[in-house]
Amino acid sequence: MSLNRKKSKPRRIALLGILTAIILIQNFVPFLGNIPIPPLNPTIIHVTVIVATLTMSTTDGMIIGAIWGVTRMIRAYTMPATPLDLLLWTNPMIALLPRILIGLFTGWGYALFRRIFSKRDKLALASASVVGSFTNTIFVLFFIYLFYGETYAQAIDVDISNLAGALAVIVGTNGVAEAIAAAIIAPLVTLPLRKITSHK
Q1: Is 3-197 CATH 2.102.10.10?
Q2: Which residues contact 109 (CB under 8 A, 6 or more apart)?
Q3: pTM of this prediction?
Q4: Which tens digits make up the pLDDT trace of 106-135?
């Protein structure tokens, strides 16, 4: 193990600790994990996962995503806002897997966009952030449809035959708003953090 790697290990642990604390705060302190834009309420917690991926590594992004997923499950068990919360967000396929995939797809997306956009790194960062954001939205809604389609349709007062269309509307409203937020915020946070962490 090289000296540089030895030096980076404590720094990595410290960064993971800081990002974990941010995830916890965003989950449990009202309004810090969402942008209240009526009638939408887009989340910005996924931005923390995206930033972890782009600043540190794909693996670290997946770790932070997993921490978000586990935290969301704990919150659903201990502080359910509705009975639907207890149903949906205690299922690891809905609460956990999509959050892990944010890190994976953001990392893959960044590797791809760096090649496509060459020296335009900000554009690559923004594009990868959009990929990560839509990964969360699409997989969460897909698994809700797959596992609890009928129950969810009843909860939002939509006929089951129209549920796919209703979910597509969510992707086109909240999903787009979250992707735009990620594309703006993630690069703005990532670039200064990279200077601090000497990310290459």
Answers
A1: no
A2: 127, 128, 131, 132
A3: 0.90
A4: 999 999 999 999 889 999 999 999 999 999
